[in-house]
Structure formats: structure tokens, C-alpha cells
Design goal:
CATH topology of the largest domain: Aspartate Aminotransferase, domain 2
Strand content: 5-15%
Bound molecules: pyridoxal-5'-phosphate
Shape: globular
Strand order of the largest sheet: 1-2-8-7-6-5-3-4
Oligomer: single chain
Number of domains: 2
Number of strands: 13
Helix content: 25-40%
Order of helices and strands: HHHEEHEHEHEHEEEHEEHEHEEH
Length: 395
């Protein structure tokens, strides 16, 4: 650090320079985040100094958090919703705002573990959960942090988790299952109803990772069953900072029953509230305000239009790609396309080097992974396919 402070001018000219290294989402087809809505940005700014880690000091920001959880609960078909005040959560569905899908997934599994332990269920030393092979890498962090084995069930030909494989992996040390509603690589939705049936039969918990799909599936023409409407679903992760168009960091975790949240409780002796249920201590009230503002501003109609727009781009990309001879691995379920191209790793490298396109690759099988987000346009799709044609023709 320098001894004396620099001038504002020096600092901001440096920042502007550095900012020019960021993509600004130009030609980005690999991200599940996008520009936050301007209403979210403005609300974020107003609540910039607020800290949800000390609720008593920020009753206003906390009120917004409660309202957001209420709206999300309603979106996800919870009967009634509550946000813990720092002491307990007494009725029905509970939740809180997290930093994103990773934190929500970690806390959901921690909730399962603590809940099972509190119930005094006799288990061996090595607890495990069963997740689809397509699960986000945040579950590797769960394994590492909590010493819980993460068993990976295989996928069927449509990249949904294979129920037989899940069933075969369940043993006496299994505490819960995970289903993905909008998996990161293929945008596919696991058979949540079938997973829920398995969890009920085996007295397990079911966490649904809808970090991406939570703001997509409810607004599709034919929505899938993936939320609290399905008996057996115990928790859901949903990220306002992805298709919810809020500011980063904005995630949310909702539990069907208050007892899960209670199992995460830690006493907080010197704060204005007696306990915390969250993973992080200090939390951004600005994220709560941003999410509140954009959800209120757009309403269901606004999100429906947003999803329609992204799905139209997706359909156009697939249709035009087919004309060039490139087939998707599956008919897209949401705004994610896995495109079969020869030598995908090399194609990806060339697309970036020659034409500035940021795309990513699915792991198994390897294919081009393209996410069509609100920052993309119809012209992007046309130009991308022209460039893809050039790159593949020259390989
Ligand atoms: N779950 C799914 C399905 C995701 O697609 C992602 C990120 O893309 C995550 C979890 C992790 O979310 P975050 O990066 O916000 O922690």
C-alpha cells in the first residue's frame, strides 16, 4: 500500500483502464450471469452500507430480505414463508439470502447433516449424499468441507439423472439426494418427482439446485415440476444474480421446514440478535434491495418476457446451427445449448482467438456449451454461426 493517498483522478483513471480488460458481456456465450437490471443497480446503491449480518441495526434491509424470500417462496409454491429474525423461524417455509448457488448448496447439505445428527439417527462415520454426475462443482466443496462423500449417479441419454443409478447408490449412510433443475452444462432438468419419491421411500432429504433454472422454469411455456409443490423436496437454491437480473452477490436458499434452518443456528453473543443461520457473517443488504426492486419492477410478466427472449434466441441458434450441419446434444430445455462440433476444444480456442467469442465446453461428452442470456442479441447469434462455420471449415 502507498504511504500517502493518491488523488481521486489517478485512482479512477486506473480503474477505468482496468475495467476495459473486462468483457462487458460482449460476445459472451459462456456465462450464466448478465448485466443486472438498472433498477437493481439503483436499489443496490441506496443500500450499499447495510449489513444483514447484524439484523437489529438494519431493520429496513432485513424487511426487504423477508419480502424477497416471501416472493421467492410464492414463486416456488411454498404454502407460507418466513425469514428468521435471528432467534428462530417458527412456521412453514424458511429461507435467507445467500451469496449465490455455491453457498446455498453448501448450507443445504449442512442442514441435512445437522438435522440428521440432531434427530439422533444412528449412522456410520462416512455420511454421503447422492448427486447427478452433472452437479455443479460446488458439491465438490461440500465433500471437502464437511467430510461428506458425494456419490455421483450416472445420466441417461438426455442428460437427466438416471433414477436406477441413484437408487443403487443409496445406502445406510446416505442422508440426502440432490436434483438439478437446470444443470449448468446442458440446461436439463432432473426428474424431481421421481427423486422425491425415492427420498420419501428412504426417509431422506431432497435438495433441488435451481440456481439457474429457478428464474427460468416457472416462466417457460410448459413448466416442469421442480419446486415445493412436489412432496419430498426439502430445500431449493435459486439465484437472483443469474436469470433474476439482480446484482452480484444475490442467491437464496429456501427450506420447506423451519427445523432445517434451526439446525444451522449459531449463537451470536455480541450482536443485536441472538443467533445466525447463515454461512457468512456480514451479508450485503444491498443485494436484498436490488433483488426486491427488480422482482417488484418486472413482476411475473417481465420475467416471462425475459425468458421468452432468451428462448427465442436459443431456438434461432439451434435452427440455424442445424442448417450448417451442427446438431445439439438435446433439444434445449432452457436457454443453454450443447452443440456437437468436431474438435470442440480447438474450435473454442479459435473462436476466442480470432473472433473474440467466449464459449465453454461440456465435460462428457465434449461439446460447445452456449448460454443465451439477455445480453445476447439476434445479431450475435447470426455472427457467431458465421464465425463457427469459418472456424470449423478450416480445421
Ligand atoms: N448450481 C448451478 C446449477 C449453477 O449453474 C451454478 C453456477 O453456474 C451454481 C450452482 C453456483 O452458483 P454461484 O457461482 O453463484 O455460487
Amino acid at each position: 500500500m502507498n504511504e500517502q493517498g493518491l488523488s481521486e483522478k489517478e485512482i479512477f483513471s486506473y480503474l477505468e483502464n482496468v475495467k476495459s480488460e473486462d468483457t462487458d458481456y460482449y460476445r459472451v456465450l459462456s456465462s450464466m450471469c448478465t448485466h443486472p437490471h438498472r433498477i437493481a443497480v439503483e436499489a443496490h446503491r441506496i443500500f450499499i452500507e447495510t449489513n444483514l449480518g447484524d439484523l437489529g441495526l438494519f431493520a429496513g434491509a432485513h424487511r426487504l430480505e423477508k419480502e424477497v424470500i416471501g416472493m421467492l417462496g410464492e414463486l416456488l409454491h411454498a404454502q407460507s414463508v418466513e425469514v428468521p429474525s435471528g432467534e428462530s423461524c417458527k412456521s412453514s417455509v424458511c429461507g435467507y439470502l445467500t451469496t449465490g448457488g455455491t453457498e446455498s448448496n453448501i448450507q443445504a447439505i449442512r442442514g441435512m447433516k445437522n438435522h440428521v445428527t440432531a434427530r439422533g439417527k444412528k449412522l456410520g462415520e462416512n455420511l454421503n449424499i447422492v448427486v447427478p454426475e452433472s452437479a455443479h462443482f460446488s458439491f465438490d466443496k461440500v465433500a471437502n468441507m464437511m467430510g461428506i462423500e458425494v456419490k455421483r449417479a450416472t445420466l441417461d441419454s438426455e442428460f437427466k439423472v438416471d433414477i436406477k443409478s441413484v437408487e443403487n447408490l443409496i445406502d445406510t449412510n446416505t442422508i440426502g439426494l440432490v436434483g438439478i433443475a437446470g444443470n449448468t452444462e446442458f440446461g436439463q432438468v432432473d426428474p424431481i418427482e421421481e427423486l422425491a419419491k425415492l427420498t420419501l421411500e428412504n426417509e431422506l432429504f431432497l435438495h433441488v439446485d435451481a440456481a439457474f433454472g429457478g428464474f427460468v422454469i416457472p416462466f417457460l411455456e410448459n413448466p416442469y415440476s421442480f419446486d415445493f409443490k412436489v412432496p419430498g423436496v426439502t430445500s431449493i437454491a435459486i439465484d437472483p444474480h443469474k436469470m433474476g437480473l439482480s446484482t452480484i452477490p444475490s442467491g437464496a436458499l429456501l427450506f420447506r421446514s423451519p427445523s432445517f434452518l434451526d439446525s444451522l443456528k449459531v449463537n451470536t453473543p455480541y450482536l443485536t440478535t441472538k443467533a445466525q443461520f447463515t454461512l457468512t457473517g456480514t451479508r450485503s443488504g444491498a443485494s436484498a434491495a436490488a433483488t426486491y426492486a427488480v422482482m417488484k419492477y418486472l413482476g411475473r410478466e417481465g420475467y416471462r418476457k425475459n425468458v421468452q427472449y432468451c428462448m427465442q434466441l436459443t431456438a434461432k441458434l439451434v435452427e440455424e446451427a442445424r442448417k450448417l450441419g451442427f446438431e445439439p446434444l438435446i433439444e434445449p430445455v432452457m436457454n443453454v445449448v450443447a452443440l456437437r462440433v468436431p474438435n470442440p476444444d480447438l474450435v473454442r480456442e479459435q473462436l476466442l482467438k480470432r473472433f473474440d467469442w467466449n464459449v465453454s465446453i461440456t465435460r462428457n461428452p465434449r461439446s460447445l456449451r452456449l448460454v443465451l442470456m439477455p445480453h445476447n442479441t439476434s445479431q450475435d447469434v447470426e455472427e457467431f454461426l458465421q464465425d463457427l462455420k469459418k472456424v470449423t471449415a478450416e480445421l
